[in-house]
């Protein structure tokens, strides 16, 4: 059972940290998966989530949870005064 889980990548990610590339898409590698492309910059984080049409509900739930998690992290950083100018943008 465990081997079946690790053989399938339902969450595929890729990152590009080039300031000349604002957004890009990284597609899911399995039909029921999600693709997450993220591009960190000095004062922002762009995230693009892609999915196949049958996974819209799963993708929207993931985007909502990711957005909540990012906002919680930003709150913690703002409280400590470490990175008050960071903002996150999500699109699905």
Name the beta content range: 25-35%
Count of DSSP-assigned helices? 2
Q: Uncertain segments of ≥5 residues (pLDDT<50)?
A: 86-92
The number of distinct β-strands equals 4
Output the radius of gyration. Answer: 15 Å
- Basic shape: globular
Average pLDDT works out at 78
> In what order do the strands lie side by side in the largest sheet?
1-2-3-4
Write the element-wise H/E pattern from the N-terminal end onward. Answer: HEEEHE
Relative helix content: 25-40%
Biggest sheet statistics: 4 strands, mixed
Determine the structural class based on helices, strands and strand pairing.
alpha/beta
State the end-to-end CA separation: 31 Å
Written overview of the protein:
There is one protein chain. With 92 residues, the chain is of the alpha/beta class. Helix content is 34%, strand content 27%. It has helices at residues 2-7, 56-80, and strands at residues 11-15, 34-40, 44-51, 87-91. Strands 1-2-3-4 form a four-stranded mixed β-sheet, with helices on one face. The longest helix is centred in the C-terminal third of the chain and has 25 residues, at 56-80. Mean pLDDT is 78; it is low at 86-92.
Give a short synopsis of this structure.
By secondary structure, the chain is α/β, with parallel strands linked by helices.
């Amino acid at each position: 059972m465990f081997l079946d889980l690790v053989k399938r990548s339902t969450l595929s990610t890729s990152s590009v940290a080039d300031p000349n590339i604002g957004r890009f898409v990284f597609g899911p590698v399995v039909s029921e998966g999600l693709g997450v492309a993220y591009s960190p910059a000095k004062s922002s984080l762009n995230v693009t989530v892609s999915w196949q049409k049958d996974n819209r509900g799963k993708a929207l739930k993931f985007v909502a949870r990711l957005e909540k998690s990012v906002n919680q992290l930003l709150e913690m950083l703002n409280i400590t005064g470490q990175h008050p100018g960071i903002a996150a943008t999500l699109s699905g």
